[in-house]
From TrEMBL:
The keyword S-adenosyl-L-methionine does not apply. This is Rhomboid-related protein 1. Belongs to the peptidase S54 family. It comes from Anolis carolinensis (Green anole). One of its GO terms (biological process) is proteolysis.
Length: 227
């Protein structure tokens, strides 16, 4: 967040002439729904009060956090299309036509490089899709609002790529579907942010949030292994 400050803002801080209102963000009244959400994101992600105030007053709705929303929407559409086509909404990987999809990753298809990433749009069933979508929106959207679409898209796609590369090494027979790799990356980023800035974080129930994020990643792994 420090790298996003303008040079004039940095000079103002250095000279002790901050142009930000002195009132705390929690004292702000008459805010609309979106500004209240921005305030929530500021306290959820940022560890320093000055950074929270700067983010709150400098934040612009354009461009919106589109990456996580587009990925989640695409995953839902792809799942609905395959569900309607196969007439199967649970354990779709057991259907022989499902594994013929050009999106599914399998170590035997390493030459088709797009599969290293496109498997994130496929899901086994409603449970896996719902779990991933919930975590992507709850954790990914606030992170994207603060750090921008480029950083979060790189983080998410790096997690997806790491998942397919890991399967290529550890299990040469297993097909891979789902956005779990990207979700692991988002959970790890959120956990790192909370742990490294524990003293400055003002988000309520810090310990509970950390446990939920960790259990979310582990639960996703358990679901994948069970399927």
């Amino acid at each position: 967040i420090s790298s996003k400050r303008s040079s004039s803002f940095k000079r103002a801080i250095a000279n002790g002439q901050r142009a930000l209102p002195r009132d705390g963000l929690l004292d702000e009244t008459g805010l609309g729904f979106y500004k209240r959400f921005v305030r929530y994101v500021a306290y959820e992600i940022l560890p320093c009060e000055m950074d929270r105030r700067w983010y709150f007053y400098q934040h612009r709705a354009c461009p919106p956090p589109v990456f996580m929303a587009v990925v989640t929407l695409t995953q839902i559409i792809v799942f609905l299309c395959y569900g309607a086509r196969l007439n199967k909404w649970v354990l779709q990987t057991y259907h022989p036509e499902y594994m013929k999809s050009p999106l599914v990753y399998h170590p035997g298809h390493r030459a088709r490089a797009w599969r290293f990433l496109t498997y994130m749009f496929m899901h086994v069933g409603l449970e896996q899709l719902g779990f991933n979508a919930l975590l992507q929106l709850m954790i990914g959207v606030p992170l994207e609002m603060v750090h921008g679409v480029l950083r979060i898209s790189f983080l998410y796609l790096a997690g997806v790529l790491a998942g397919s590369l890991t399967v290529s090494i550890t299990d040469m027979r297993a097909p891979l579907v789902g956005g779990s790799g990207g979700v692991y990356a988002l959970c790890s980023a959120h956990l790192a942010n909370v742990v490294m800035n524990w003293a400055g974080m003002r988000c309520p129930y810090k310990l509970l949030r950390m446990v939920l994020a960790l259990s979310g990643g582990m639960g996703n792994k358990v679901l994948r292994n069970w399927w």
